[in-house]
Fold this protein.
Amino acid sequence: MAAEELPSEFDVVILGTGLAESVVAAAFSRVGQRVLHLDRRSYYAANWASFTFNSLLTWIQQHHEEPQPEELHDWSSLLEEGEELIYLSNTDSTSVRNLQVFCFTSEEGEEAEAQSPDAPNTTEEVSAGDAVKETSETESADSKYEETNQKPEEEEEEEQASQTEGEEPEADQPTPTAAQSQSEPTKKKISYAQLVKEGRRFNIDLVSKLLYSRGSLVDLLIKSNVSRYAEFKNVTRILTYRHGQVEQVPCSRADVFASRQLSVVEKRKLMRYLTSCVEETEEQRAYNGRPYLEFLCDQQLGNNLQHFLLHSIAMVTEDTPTEEGLASTRHFLRCLGRYGNTPFLFPVYGLGEIPQCFCRMCAVFGGIYCLRHSVTCLLVEKETNRCKAVIDSRGQRISCSHFVVEDGFVGADRKRLATPTRFLSRAVLITDGSILPSNSDQQVSMITVPPVAAGCPTVKMVELCPSTMTCMPGTHLVHLTCQSVGSAFEDLSPVVTRMFRTPQSHDQEKNPSVLWCLYFNMADGSEVKGHDLPSNVFVTFGPDGALSHEHAVSQAELIFKKILPEEDFCPPAPNPEDIIYDGENTSTGGEEEQSLQTEE
Amino acid sequence: MAGGSVFECKEYLFKVLVIGELGVGKTSIIKRYVHQLFSQHYRATIGVDFALKVINWDSKTLVRLQLWDIAGQERFGNMTRVYYKEAVGAFVVFDVTRGSTFEAVSKWKHDLDSKVKLANGNPIPSVLLANKCDQKKDSSNNTALMDNFCKETGFLGWFETSAKDNINVDEAARFLVESILANDKGLPYEESNGERIKLDQETVAAESKSGCC
Ligand SMILES: Cc1cc2nc3c(=O)[nH]c(=O)nc-3n(C[C@H](O)[C@H](O)[C@H](O)COP(=O)(O)OP(=O)(O)OC[C@H]3O[C@@H](n4cnc5c(N)ncnc54)[C@H](O)[C@@H]3O)c2cc1C
Ligand SMILES: Nc1nc2c(ncn2[C@@H]2O[C@H](COP(=O)(O)OP(=O)(O)OP(=O)(O)O)[C@@H](O)[C@H]2O)c(=O)[nH]1
Ligand SMILES: [Mg+2]
C-alpha cells in the first residue's frame, strides 16, 4: 500500500478512469502491454462514477469549492536534448456545473447523527417561487447554494419544536423495509438522517444509461470475460408519460397480449407492425429522409400505438428520419427476449461498476493503478512530434510509447474549439415509492417522457428499486437525463413537479414523494473535438446523452486498433478454473511457474 | 449459487479476499491450499483472478471457496470495488521475516473494513496470517501480544503459517469458513432480491474444439 516509486517505463500510460479509458486499459494489458492507469480523482470511473449517499455529498461539496489552480511547476530541468513540454490542465472544473440540491424530508434525528458532516448541503423545503426566481440565470446557481447553506441552522429550532411530539428513538429504529412501507397506510417518511445513516446502501450514478442486451458493451463484456465481475438486473418494464399519466408500454408479444390499455384491434395492428418492420421493404425505403412520425401516421396505427412506437420503442423525436427510426426499432426488437421482457439490463451496484470491471481485468494482467495521481506534462520530441515520456504529479519522468488521456485533462490551449461545449441535464431523485405501483415492489423501469411543452427537451428517466443495490429499502432512485436547453433545474424540474410530489406540486397526492434531489449539468461527451497533440497521444471523451454505451466502446476500440492493428481486441481472459500450473506436470521438478495456458 | 442435489445438501459459494504487502506469500498460500504446490521462485502475480477450492464441509454442506488474490495494482493501494464486492471473509497476510509487512497490517485491515461490510453493516470476518514461519529465527513466544493485537484490530484470530512446509494453511481456512458459515446462518435469506443475471459466453466452444488434434 505504500507510496512506492513507480516503474519508469510503460508501453501505455492512461489518464482518467472513465469507461472508454478503462476499456482501453484492459485491452492493452490483456495482450501483454505494460499499462499505467492513473486518475487525479480519489475515486474510480471519472464522470461515470457511482457514489454512496455520503460520498455523493462530498462530491457535491467539491464541485462547489473554487478549484485551486495548482502552481505550475517548471519541469524543464527534466527535458532532454530536442524535447519540449506540453502542460496538461490541472483543474477539471468545466465538465460539471449548476449543481443544486433540495431536501424535502425532515432533518429529524440530526442531533443523534452528529457525525453527518454534510447536512448543510441540503435546503429545507425551498419554496417553488424562490427556487425558480433564483435560478433563472445559470450563473446564480452557485450563489444560491451559498445562501441555502445557512438555512438548516436557522430553522433548527423550529424543526426541533415540531418534532418533540414525535417518537424520539426514530434514529435507532431499523429502516422500514420495502414491504412494510408499502403495506402501512400512513407510511412514515424517511428522514434525512436515515438517508445519511443508510448512505452506504446507495450507489448513485453520475450518468444514467442502460445496456442493450445485444449492444456492443454486452458483447464486449461477454467476449472478454470481464462479465465475470458483474451481475445484472433486467429492466422489467418500459413506461411512458402521456396525458398526465404513467402508462406501461407493451413491447413483447406477451405484453401486447396481456395489455389492458389496448383494444383487440390495436393489439393486432401492433403485432403486425412489429413483425413487418423487421424486414426492410420498398414501402419503407420510400420514406427515407422523411420523418418517422410521417411513416407511422401513414400506417394508420392510431394515437396510442404511434406514441408507443415513436417515443418508447424507437425512442426518437418527431423529426427523426424514417430510416433511423426503423433502425432503432429493429435494434430494440432484436434485444428483446435475450435476458428478459425488455431490451435492457442494469448492473447491480450501479453503472459505476462497469469501468471498474475493466480496470480489474487490466490489473489482473499486470496493469498498475494509482488514484490521486496525475500527469502534469508531456515530454515531446520536437523532430518527430511524438510524446516520449510523461511527468507525473510527483515529478517522476515515465517513458511511454503511447499516451491516452480523457478530454477533461487537455488544456484549453490544445483544443481546436469551434463551438461552445454542449451539456446534458441530469437530475437524481430519492423517492419514497414507485412511479407506477404494481404487485411487485422490485421493478426496474425505463420511462420515456416526451416534451412537456413546446421547446422542452425529451426526458429519459430510469427508476431503480432497492434490489439493484443502488438505494436503501423503502426508497427508489430516479435518474432523469436530457440534452440541456437551460440549466438542469430549468430543464428537469417541470417534469419532476408533474410526476412526483414535491412542495411545489399540487394535487399529486398519489405520486411518490421526492425525499431528496440533485440537479446538475455535465459536459456531453458526444462532442468529439479536435486537438493539437502529438501523434501518439489519444483523447477520449466522457459520457454522452445516449441511452447506450456504444460511443465509449467504439472510441476504445478505435484507439486500440490504431495502436495495435494486428492484435485481438479484448480476447477472452482464461477462466480461473482452467489455469494449469506447470508444476503439476513437469517431471523435471524444476521451475514451478504458473503459466496462463488454458486447455485448448 | 446452489445447484440442488438429490440429498439435502446445501451448497455455498464464498468469496474470500487474500491481501497483504508485496511478496508476503499470498499467492503461495493460495497455491498451497488449492493446488498443493509450492515454488521458491518468486514471480509477480499476473493473470490470476481467484482460485477455487471445493470443500466437503460435512455430509450436508458443500462449500466453494473463491480465493481472490490481488494483482499488481494493489501495491499502490487502489483496489477497485469489484475486488471487494460481496466478499464474506478475508485473510490478511504478513511475512514474519519482514517487520514492515506487519506494520502494514492495520492499514490493510482498515482499508478492508472501509470498503466492504456484511449486509447487516458489520465488518467481514478476517483472519491474520503470519506467513513464512518456517523461516522464523528467534523462537520467542509473542502469543499474548498477537492475541491482543487481533482483538484491537478486529481480527477473529491469527495463525502462524508456512506455504512452504504446509503449516496451518488448512487450519486457518477451516477457522475462517467456520465463522463465515456462522454469519451466514444469522443473516436473513436475501432471495427477496430476485434473480440476478450473469452474462456468459454462449456455448459455441463445442464446434471449435472438435478440430483439435
Ligand atoms: C466495495 C467498495 C470498494 C471500493 N473500492 C475503492 C477502491 O478500490 N479505491 C478507492 O479509491 N475507493 C474505493 N471505494 C470508494 C471509497 O471506499 C468510498 O469513498 C467509501 O466506501 C465511502 O465510504 P462511506 O463511509 O461513505 O460508506 P461505507 O459505509 O464505508 O461504504 C460501504 C459501501 O460498501 C458497499 N457495500 C457494503 N457491503 C458490501 C458488500 N458486501 N458488497 C458490496 N458492496 C458492499 C455499500 O453499498 C457501500 O457502497 C470503494 C467503495 C466500495 C463501497
Ligand atoms: N520460506 C518461505 N517462503 C515463502 C513462503 N510463502 C511464500 N514464500 C516465498 O515468498 C516469495 C513471495 O511469495 P508470493 O506467494 O509470490 O507472494 P505474494 O504475496 O503473492 O506476492 P505479490 O503477488 O507480488 O504481491 C516467493 O519466493 C515464495 O517462494 C513460506 O511460507 N515460507
Ligand atoms: Mg501474488
Remarks:
- DSSP finds seven helices and six strands in chain B.
